[in-house]
């Protein structure tokens, strides 16, 4: 039987504020397969033929050095993210289809205020990039986990896990306190954002896209959930990767040099850079290490902000949770991460 | 987009990932260690595509006419397919190297450089050479013939430098390591040409204008053009 997935789906938002719900003509509710003018398979076929035919002019088009660097960075961000995306999508489909609702009620503390830190700590053990945790958090909310706890998990999972902390230790061999500062600051931000959501968050801000309801076997429902999330989260990942590649190529590092001397400016500069560059959380420590002209505190802020707010993540969160959510959540997380990162840096570094 | 079109896009996407990871193409973009995960992800994508097609074609017979708002944004997944299968951009080169500061950063407190392995000349990575030259005062380098491999990139003064990209995760975090050249400088070699230089350590250093980091010099005795190595990142 089909899993009752629709309980937490909210369809009461203003029309047209969901990203992929353009005002499509009302779908024929039932009956034979809708007769469409030109099917998407045909469009796809024509597109592919055109691409193959115009292959050489296309390659010519991106042969300028700067454009070539853009293409390399764009492709590499995606290639790097694909295993994490697929892993996250499969795990979120497992949560959606195979893990019973009652499991989460038992696994997490009943009181939401306690469930938040528990979920934050659960994020510590899941090694992964931020691309995987977005669909997983969406799936948790669908399955009845309180959004505050799912959001704490969303923020904590990519920021503090064994791989990321090890990478930080390797990148800062002379400053082991950096690892502690990163872990503590990230966990505080994740839990604080969860609690903030409990106080101020509104359920109607989160608008999970309608997942297809599949009749029949669980495997069929599983495949449908995977397909939907890959197309959806994957599409937004492409948007984020393109934005990150653009920033990577357009913003010369030289500009940063002039900001490094002023502590307040350098913190803000590196926080913004973390958002724009959208580097995978497993690699950002190495980039932070190479920004050696900046203070340790400003580099800590870079490491705390990056896994929680970046272009790629904002695009994916908009896709999975809706625009009303991401337009509030991302700026709030940014501010919290900058403040906590600066505070912890002042104390520990 | 209907399910069949989605399945085709997933199939292409998974196929592109598989093709890149089964050949050496993936090395231009990510670390070697990611390969098994890329292959696994590619296989899963292909499997999801095949199962989607199979369920969809079989479901046609039962004709249940549900119509859903399927994610339009999924069309964008054609872009990486295009990038991997048709364009396949090269690994980062001198354009990226000129944009960013050399990656040489302060070593750990207990930096201890062991003696170089035997060999005349001895092969040395650029990062290894630079940190031995700058942080160890060249102690372990004196009196040895050294062979370095990298691509040519124009330095701030227009003189050719030897560079290589250092990558820790994917090309987005690629940062250059630069070594300036003196002596038999490979003049009039276009940027991005891969060369192998043999030379000796010199205590001369320059400063990278991008991030003020030190760039060591190498006194070149001879150099030759080579084909780009399989693993272009260091």
From TrEMBL, chain A:
Principal location listed in the UniProt entry: membrane
Compositional bias per record (Basic and acidic residues), positions renumbered to this chain: 7-21
One Pfam family it belongs to: ArsP_1
Biased composition (Pro residues): 23-32
Any one GO CC term of the record: plasma membrane
Region (Disordered): 1-36
Membrane topology per record: Multi-pass membrane protein
Coiled-coil segments: none
Key words, A-Z: Cell membrane, Membrane, Transmembrane, Transmembrane helix
Family named by the database record: Belongs to the UPF0718 family.
PANTHER family in the record: UPF0718 PROTEIN YCGR (PTHR34184:SF4)
Protein name: Permease
Biological classification of the source: Bacteria, Bacillati, Actinomycetota, Actinomycetes, Micromonosporales
From TrEMBL, chain B:
DUF1980 domain: residues covered: 142-233
InterPro entries: DUF1980, DUF1980_C, UPF0703_membrane_permease
Record keywords: Membrane, Transmembrane, Transmembrane helix
Domain of life: Bacteria
One Pfam family here: DUF1980_C
Positions of transmembrane segments: 33-55, 75-92
Protein name: Membrane protein
Phylogenetic lineage: Bacteria, Bacillati, Actinomycetota, Actinomycetes, Micromonosporales
């Amino acid at each position: 039987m089909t899993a009752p997935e629709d309980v937490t789906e909210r369809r009461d938002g203003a029309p047209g504020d969901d990203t992929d719900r353009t005002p499509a003509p009302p779908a024929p509710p039932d009956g034979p397969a809708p007769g469409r003018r030109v099917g998407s398979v045909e469009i796809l076929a024509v597109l592919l033929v055109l691409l193959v035919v115009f292959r050489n002019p296309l390659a010519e088009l991106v042969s300028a050095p700067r454009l070539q660097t853009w293409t390399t960075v764009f492709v590499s961000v995606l290639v790097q993210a694909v295993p994490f995306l697929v892993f996250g999508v499969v795990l979120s489909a497992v949560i959606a289809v195979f893990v019973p609702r009652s499991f989460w009620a038992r696994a997490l503390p009943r009181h939401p205020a306690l469930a938040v830190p528990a979920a934050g700590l659960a994020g510590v053990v899941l090694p992964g990039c931020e691309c995987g945790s977005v669909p997983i958090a969406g799936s948790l909310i669908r399955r009845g986990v309180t959004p505050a706890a799912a959001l704490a998990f969303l923020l904590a999972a990519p920021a503090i896990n064994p791989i990321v902390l090890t990478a930080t230790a390797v990148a800062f061999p002379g400053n082991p306190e950096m690892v502690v500062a990163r872990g503590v600051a990230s966990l505080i931000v994740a839990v604080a954002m969860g609690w903030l959501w409990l106080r101020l968050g509104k359920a109607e801000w989160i608008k999970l896209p309608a997942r297809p309801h599949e009749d029949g076997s669980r495997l069929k429902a599983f495949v449908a959930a995977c397909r939907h999330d890959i197309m959806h989260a994957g599409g937004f990942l492409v948007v984020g990767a393109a934005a990150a590649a653009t920033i990577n190529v357009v913003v010369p590092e030289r500009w940063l040099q002039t900001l490094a001397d002023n502590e307040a400016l350098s913190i803000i500069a590196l926080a913004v850079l973390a958002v724009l560059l959208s580097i995978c959380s497993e690699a950002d420590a190495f980039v932070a290490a190479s920004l050696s002209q900046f203070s340790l505190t400003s580099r800590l802020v870079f490491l705390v902000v990056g896994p929680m707010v970046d272009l790629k993540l904002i695009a994916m969160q908009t896709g999975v949770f809706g625009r009303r959510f991401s337009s509030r959540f991302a700026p709030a997380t940014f501010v919290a991460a900058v403040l906590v990162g600066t505070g912890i840096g002042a104390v520990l570094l | 987009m209907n399910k069949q079109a989605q399945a085709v896009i997933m199939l292409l996407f998974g196929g592109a990932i598989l093709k890149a990871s089964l050949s050496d193409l993936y090395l231009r973009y990510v670390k070697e260690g990611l390969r098994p995960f890329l292959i696994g992800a590619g296989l899963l994508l292909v499997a999801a595509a095949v199962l989607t097609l199979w369920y969809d074609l079989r479901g046609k017979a039962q004709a249940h006419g549900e119509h859903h708002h399927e994610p339009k944004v999924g069309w964008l997944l054609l872009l990486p397919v295009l990038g991997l299968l048709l364009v396949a951009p090269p690994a980062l080169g001198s354009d990226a190297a000129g944009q960013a500061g050399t990656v040489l950063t302060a070593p750990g407190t207990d930096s201890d450089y062991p003696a170089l392995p035997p060999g005349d000349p001895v092969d040395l990575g650029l990062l290894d050479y630079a940190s031995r030259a700058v942080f160890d005062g060249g102690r372990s380098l004196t009196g040895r013939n050294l062979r370095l491999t990298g691509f040519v990139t124009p330095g701030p003064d227009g003189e050719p430098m030897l560079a290589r990209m250092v990558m820790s995760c994917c090309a987005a975090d690629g940062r250059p390591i630069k070594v300036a050249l003196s002596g038999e400088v490979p003049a009039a070699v276009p940027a991005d040409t891969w060369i192998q230089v043999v030379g000796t350590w010199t205590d001369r250093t320059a400063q990278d204008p991008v991030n003020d980091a030190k760039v060591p010099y190498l006194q070149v005795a001879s150099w030759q053009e080579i084909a780009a190595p399989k693993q272009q990142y260091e």
